[in-house]
Amino acid sequence: MKAAILCVNFLDHDGNHPLIGGVETYVLNLALICQEIGLETTIYQFANLQFEKEQAGLKVKGIHINNLPWKKRKTALYSAVEKEINMEKDIVIFGSDHISVPTGNRRHISVQHGINWDLPVRYLSNHRFARYKWAASFIKWREISFYKQSFENCMNTVCVDYNFMNWYRTTIAEENSEHNVWVIPNFSAILPVDHFRTRSYSNKDIRILFARRMVEYRGTRIMSAAAKYLLSKYPDIRFTFAGEGPDEDWLRRVFSSEKGVNIIKYLPEEAQAIHLRHDIAVIPSLASEGTSIAVVEAMATGCPVVATAVGGLTNQIIHGFNGLLVMPNISSLIDGLEVLIRNPEMRRSIGTRAYETAKEAFPLARWKRAWQEVISRVGQIPLDSSY
Q: Of the N and C termini of the chain, which has fewer Cβ atoms inside 10 Å?
């Protein structure tokens, strides 16, 4: 039996190197689960040219469809997969529901990664009328309609948070009783507790980490403004911006003369080691968040998190207990960071509770088991008792 996982990106669109991001990490681990169950697994993705590569022991096929209009690409990707697998016996997983197509096939699963139309309209459209209130409302309505339809394309859906399902239940007139929905929050490998107990808790040399894709809606601009202010007020603190993206060059220019800021790249497997070297992790997204892998990676190392109260982040953090939630603006972000900068004992207690939360609620083993059960049910595959 085969499994086909469809996505926009896994490798870059020329097939030369893997991409770093939450969805890519998700697809990688999902493909490994399919292999462990015994499915012959291939990842299919958008591409500038046809290619077939191997990455992390997985077959990756690039389908030359980037020359097509966006709306036709997902149909073309599905058509390419349809030619290579048996639709009556094999499993198809849409790595993101927004590239799903309506098929009615009960052996198909889509992944809903959270609400992303909470973005400001400037991110959703570059139309010249977007600045007008009537047009902004229409653009939002169009996005909502698209993602509602995307969710309904598949009869089986895995959601990464409860935020989306709460929204969906308030908007539909009648629930589809045939639509199977599972909520499986995102995950991280959990380090042994002794790894983070060696972290120093003091008022000096506090190291603050932003480890995200470097794009504006992930909070690069408000994070940089908050860092500028805090560096002027607390000369002993240090900031690390870890990642890559379109704002990387902008950040390097902004902090070109700032000795208290380090800008680095990292691989997914290095995420926990980076968090272990820092005292506070910041997730300052403006919008478009499910249950964040970045949050769990920090929690899993006992690193206290300051995060904006956006999307699925509120499914992970209880304010003041296992992290701090702030509003997605500069002043609120500064306030939250200052609370932890000034209170080393709070950093310790929140970090410890964050670790316990990750260990009990978001371990990779639990995520894997939940997905194995979904695939087993949809594909009618008996699971080995060792799973």
A: C
Closest residue by Cα to residue 90 from 73, 106, 107, 76: 107
Q: Which two tokens stand for residue 177?
A: 């009783």
Q: Dmax over Cα atoms in the chain, in whole Å? A: 64
Do 336 and 305 contact (CB within 8 A), yes or no? no
Report whether 201 contacts 290 (CB < 8 A). no
| Nearest in space to 218 (alpha carbons), one of 296, 286, 154 | 286
Q: CB–CB of 354/292 below 8 Å? A: no
Q: What is the pLDDT of residues 194-205, one digit of tens each?
A: 665 567 777 888
**Which of the 8 DSSP states describes residue 323?**
B
Rounded to whole angstroms, the Cα distance separating 20 from 289 reads: 16
Distances (CA, A) of 266 to 49, 57, 125: 27, 21, 31
In angstroms, rounded to a whole number, what is the distance separating the alpha carbons of residues 108 and 94? 8
Distance, in Å, from the CA atom of 144 to the CA atom of 140, rounded to the nearest integer, reads 6
Contact by Cβ (8 Å): 140, 124: yes
Counting residues of the chain whose pLDDT is more than 90, the rounded percentage is 75
More confident residue, 98 or 119: 98
Pair of tokens at residue 207: 């190291």
Q: 228: buried, middle or exposed (CB in 10 Å: 19+, 13-18, 0-12)?
A: middle
Q: What token pair was written down for 120?
A: 């400001």
Mean pLDDT of 258-278: 91
Question: For position 189, what pLDDT does the model report?
Answer: 82
Q: How confident is residue 387, by pLDDT bands cut at 50, 70 and 90?
A: very low
- The H helix count followed by the E strand count for the chain is 12, 14
- Residue in the structure block whose two tokens are 């997605």: 328
- Residue 6 sits at the vertex; the CA angle it makes with 5 and 9, to the nearest 5 degrees, is 115
Pairing verdict, β 180-183 and 261-264: unpaired
pLDDT tens, 52-77?
Answer: 999 989 999 999 999 999 889 999 99
Domains of the chain plus CATH, in order, are: 2-187+364-379 (3.40.50.2000), 193-361 (3.40.50.2000)
